[in-house]
Fold these 2 entries.
Entry 1:
Amino acid sequence: MSTKHALVNSLRNRFWQWVARRAPKAPAVTLQHKSIYVFPGRQGVLFIFVLGLMWLLGTNYENNLILAAAFLLMSMMIVSVVHAFRNLAGLRFTAIGCQPVFAGDYVRFDVLLEAAPRTDHENIQLSFFDENMSVAVDVPHGGEQRLNLSAKTHRRGWFQPGRLSVKSHYPLGLIRAWSWIQLDTKALVYPAPLPSAAPPMTPANSAHGDYLSRENSEDFQGFQRYQAGAPLAHVAWKQFARGAGLHLKDYVGYQNQQVWLDWDGLPGLDTETRLSQLCYWALELARTHTEFGLRMPGCTIELGLGSAHQDRILRALALFEIGDPDTRGQRGA
């Protein structure tokens, strides 16, 4: 049984290598004769079987009407082969881009589909691995369509969608024309956020992170004008007695608003769990006005704020021990 599986896998690998040579990976791919395959579909096979029966009946009974009908239907099927091929020929696919997602989510790749100048393309079905996520589209001659093609992610890092299946059963549903193309595109997949019981944060030892707060205040800051409803304990009675009017004593406290997301703050956990929990707290801190940074083995991102800072931290978490594909090769998620 293992020898049989090895032989099947070897044949499958050789087949896909042959397909890859005929349609290499590229940012933009145009379907041509060498990358389009045509074969009868299920309905086409049944249609051929019925034609065979009609031909046998017409021959045995010397019925010219049955033979004429069989030959007419056969000619229609042959003509549909040409139309099925032309329905895909000339289509051009261009990878536009995609947005980062979290592991386990669907990533959407933006693809521009352009039609040939003189051919209408009808009922074109496109999908990656999941046939349930296929997209059907019609493109008039010389027109274009911008598509969102989805693929399921499973792990963090760089995700390549793999082969894009392009197929059509136009015009009669008897002939199946299809192709596989590989667009040179990839998506960044962040770790799936995972809450932790205690945040892996340590305060930053910097005076730049202190801010004034009137909650839990302790230090006297000065005076401010009296406001109705203020506590009587905060009224500056000495100044009032001197004829200076009603004023309130202004007390402030200092609270640190700089923290570090620390790898060592999550002891006893495996790598992926740590990354997921750090991802969760990075998202939580980004919703506040807290300056935060990241400390991991071999990587330190200084304190910062804003969406760009959040993206840098999430990218570092996604590519931890993976690296940049431009220098170390791409790795699927």
Entry 2:
Amino acid sequence: MSDTAPPERLCVHESIDEKVPIESFVNTLDDLSVPVEIVGDDASFNETDVITSYRPRDGFLDAGWVHCIRAGYDEFDTQAYEDAGTPLTNSTGIHGTTVSELVIGYMLMFARRHHVYRDKQTRHQWYEPSYDRPFTVEGESACVIGLGTIGRGIATRANTLGVDIVGVRRSNESVPGVSTVYSPDSLQKAINDVRFVILAVPDTPETEDLISTAELQCMRSDAYVINVARGSVVDEDALISALEDDIIAGAGLDVFRTEPLPESSPLWDFEEVIVSPHQGSTTNQYHRDLAELTKEIFRQHQSGEPLRNRVV
């Protein structure tokens, strides 16, 4: 199958409606040179079709190119795409603003106690924290683990608030706004004296349980874990134990091993844990962000150029 078979139709799989309003997404694609069609699981495809989808389907392998609107493509069988010769792309690289703003929100909430004020408000309770609890993020430190688009966005925004940023990445290349870059082998050294440990790494075998008992125990007792990467990156049992034993101060979590987070999870019940339902990238303009990336890669496919964000 040719990577550059002339596309005749862009198929928008109905699963996209799980993430963004599908009609809004389709309307933003109206300037493409081919028809845009919403398709369901019963649709069939050939190499002149290109597909954008939230979920994988077996029939997609017959298409000329498939685009996953998520940054995480772990549900897609990459070996099957490679065997079929079907290009697969993802939506990494467009979340630097949205996800980093969520992280900054977590940091400010923990620092200025907004999460507790809101909890007390729902109970009509006037609450004044002890003098030593509120703090400013200015003058604090954070370690950003993973310095891709999201990690760099976090570093830039936190740095403007006066937070000293160190980072962890495989390359030792310097990053604007990051004072020190550590290798993954020096992870514990990187996180042992910062107020915020922020995870922005992809889900890979190497990042499974990246933060577990040993890492949590080497952190400061007033430190917070913030995870906007994937649930698998943090050992949840170890995190719960660390919170129960006051090993760390708290956690801001947008991703979990099981989503939705089960009602039985102890993570719901900690005052110093903020739970958000995997919404780091979601804004009322997210459909436009996804559509603009889709159009960019579509035109590359159409002209036979290398595809941005190609996974396979």
